[in-house]
């Protein structure tokens, strides 16, 4: 197996990290004093929609993930979805209000609906038969790793003063998606 193979597998496995990170990060954001002051949550419904808007985006895009993968190829679909995730992450990080945060979460969710289905396909197609199961598993490992990173970074940034506490935390999700685009 060539270095190109390892780069392709590693880059696409990073999709799992940004999926898990975005799933895990929001719980800490909702409780940070600076985000409470900035977004001025009026009720639990607003908080609930911040969480569920991500899943809403994933729901709709998952219906088209196979079509996109067949039309543009697995690799190009993963890269394109990761570009869209970067946009969603930027919107979340720069959110000036709830609507912008909702839109950023929906956009990030659209990516997840695609990559959740396409990454295992890509891994199974490029992997040698004997290593296929372990390589396909990397996305799931990435999801759990991303959640762990989100919880750790939430904790580490919760002590920061002002909006940096939640903006830095949200910005971290952009890194693995950007690396996928580069890989």
TrEMBL record:
TM region(s), chain numbering: 7-29, 49-69, 76-95, 101-122, 134-153, 165-182
SUPFAM superfamilies named in the record: MFS general substrate transporter
InterPro entries named among the record's database cross-references: MFS_dom (IPR020846), MFS_sugar_transport-like (IPR005828), MFS_Sugar_Transporters (IPR050360), MFS_trans_sf (IPR036259), Sugar/inositol_transpt (IPR003663), Sugar_transporter_CS (IPR005829)
Residue ranges occupied by any Major facilitator superfamily (MFS) profile domain in the UniProt entry: 8-183
Similarity remark: Belongs to the major facilitator superfamily. Sugar transporter (TC 2.A.1.1) family.
Compartments reported by the entry: Membrane
Molecular function terms from GO: carbohydrate:proton symporter activity
Coiled-coil ranges per UniProt: none
Keywords assigned by UniProt, alphabetized: Membrane, Transmembrane, Transmembrane helix, Transport
Database matches in PANTHER family: PLASTIDIC GLUCOSE TRANSPORTER 4 (PTHR48022:SF2)
Membrane protein topology class: Multi-pass membrane protein
Species the sequence originates in: Syncephalis pseudoplumigaleata
Superkingdom of the source species: Eukaryota
UniProt name for this protein: General substrate transporter
GO cellular component, as recorded: membrane
